[in-house]
Design brief:
Strand content: 15-25%
Structural class: alpha/beta
Shape: globular
Oligomer: single chain
CATH topology of the largest domain: FAD/NAD(P)-binding domain
Mean pLDDT: 95
Low-confidence stretches: none
Number of strands: 22
Number of helices: 15
CATH class of the largest domain: Alpha Beta
Largest sheet: 7 strands, mixed
CATH architecture of the largest domain: 3-Layer(bba) Sandwich
């Protein structure tokens, strides 16, 4: 059977789903979306959504167990099996809502593997979909680095962890010091696991978070006493667990291993060559600033094309791809305007340029800082670790970037993000009336500190 569409989106993760919905809302009549596995993609089923569900539980465990001075008696323990069931129910509910909204929006849904037959034709099973425009949003697959190999119940990727209930056994090795490993080291510890952290580098050392932020993260991990070891040279799956052999002769026996060492673009089976689509040396689909491939009517968004590989960037990519399909080359991506968040023993958020990046871009950065240590709301929550840090241009006062570290960083960073790129952003912060007591008040305090320290009163206050 052959059907014709204005747009076919391949992949229903956050980027693909949003692209299909947004295209429909903006007036495209015939829109289709193709999904090979579970509707909602990795983010909903095996990533951001279930992981944040677990992170909330992990934070509750931490908060209650330090609540004696607040009149909270006793200790609580996390249970990974029950936590898995909770996230499973949450994910199922959201997935049902996704599918229902697609149907009500009039988006044609196809279940199966999509592959290009030609630049304008896509095969899904026995169906041939002819289309004017294509958005590839197939996401990424978990990377399995040597010397590991996937073994059911023993060596798992993060995809495996959410696809089925977790294995028995509490002693767990987690591989990776990036965002995935850093988040799961905290989460699984709080959910009752004994963690061995396999990391050749310090947590988040390859990110753009400041040394001050990374130092606070280290301090937050210290009370957990999670041992850190380098990546093992040899791995052997035994009947009673997994043995890890290290270069110095040390051995560790764990019940199971979770691989959190990153992801790789998922292009298997797409037959990109038949559409003439080019990829780079790392397997990412090549795109320009408009998220357009070398084939003009085909766009690629999210993890399959964006090296940042976050749901936030996939969603931003979706907006741009749809805008540029409707109005060619009308919006170009600015990766720094998309917030980056980490949910671990400490919540970390950043947006825009760091100091070093600002210097490289030709700016002379001025920094404003306000700590949560003296914030009444933070004190009332017993969570005073963290700060708001603003980076502005010394000459113009233009807001270049920001970092928010601590509880609710993921929400506060959005307040700052709405003003990024506006010439009068700092003036808006300085003249905004905030709720009191609130953590967000530190945005204004950081702005006022910046103005006073760097002589920017005129740019910030207008006089």
């Amino acid at each position: 059977m052959q059907t014709t569409f204005d747009l076919v989106v391949i992949g229903s993760g956050p980027g693909g789903y949003r692209a299909a919905v947004l295209a429909k809302l903006r007036g495209m009549e015939n829109v289709a979306i193709v999904e090979e596995a579970s509707w909602g993609g990795c983010c909903l089923n095996r990533g951001c959504v279930p992981k944040k569900d677990w992170h909330h539980t992990a934070k509750l465990v931490a908060e209650v167990n330090r609540g004696f001075s607040r009149g909270l008696m006793g200790q609580v323990q996390g249970d990974l099996a029950m936590a898995w069931q909770h996230q499973h129910e949450v994910v199922s509910l959201i997935r049902e809502n996704y599918v229902d909204y697609m149907k009500r929006s009039g988006i044609a849904a196809f279940q199966g593997t999509a592959s290009f037959v030609s630049p304008h034709t896509i095969r899904v099973g026995d169906e041939l979909l002819d289309t004017k425009q294509v958005i590839v949003a197939t996401g990424a697959a978990a990377r399995v680095p040597e010397p590991f190999s996937r073994q059911p119940g023993r060596i798992l990727t993060t995809d495996d962890l959410f696809d089925a209930p977790p294995p028995s056994g509490r002693r767990v090795a987690i591989l990776g010091s990036g965002v995935i490993g850093t988040e799961f080291a905290f989460i699984l510890h709080q959910l009752g696991c004994q963690i061995v952290w396999l990391a050749n580098t310090e947590p988040l050392s390859h990110t753009e978070f400041s040394p001050a932020a990374l130092n606070l993260l280290e301090e937050a991990f210290e009370p957990l006493n999670i041992p850190r070891l380098p990546r093992p040279q040899r791995v052997e799956v035994l009947s009673n667990g997994v043995r890890l052999d290290f270069a110095d002769g040390r051995q560790e026996l764990v019940d199971w291993v979770l691989l959190g060492a990153g992801r790789q673009p998922n292009t298997d089976g797409l037959n990109l060559a038949l559409a003439g689509i080019e990829t780079d040396e790392r397997g990412f689909i090549k795109v320009n600033a408009y998220r357009q491939t070398n084939v003009g009517h085909i766009y690629a968004i999210g993890d399959v094309a964006n090296h940042k590989m976050t749901a936030n960037h996939a969603l931003a990519d979706a907006d741009l791809a749809v805008a540029n399909i409707l109005h060619p080359r009308s919006r170009a991506i600015e990766l720094d305007t998309v917030p980056e968040l980490v949910y671990s023993a400490l919540e970390l958020g950043r947006i825009g340029l760091s100091e070093d990046a600002a210097i490289d871009a030709g700016f002379e950065p001025a920094v404003g800082f306000a700590a949560f240590e003296t914030n009444p709301r933070a004190a009332g929550q017993d969570e005073t670790d963290g700060f708001v840090r603003l980076v502005a241009d010394m000459d113009s006062g233009q807001l270049l970037g920001a970092e928010v570290i601590g509880t609710e960083a993921g929400e506060i960073i959005h307040v700052i993000g709405t003003q990024l790129g506006h010439d009068d952003a700092l003036q808006r912060f300085a003249t905004t009336f905030f709720n009191h007591p609130a953590r967000a008040e530190e945005i204004r305090n950081a702005t006022e500190t910046l103005a006073a320290k760097w002589g920017l009163n005129e740019q910030v206050f207008g006089s």
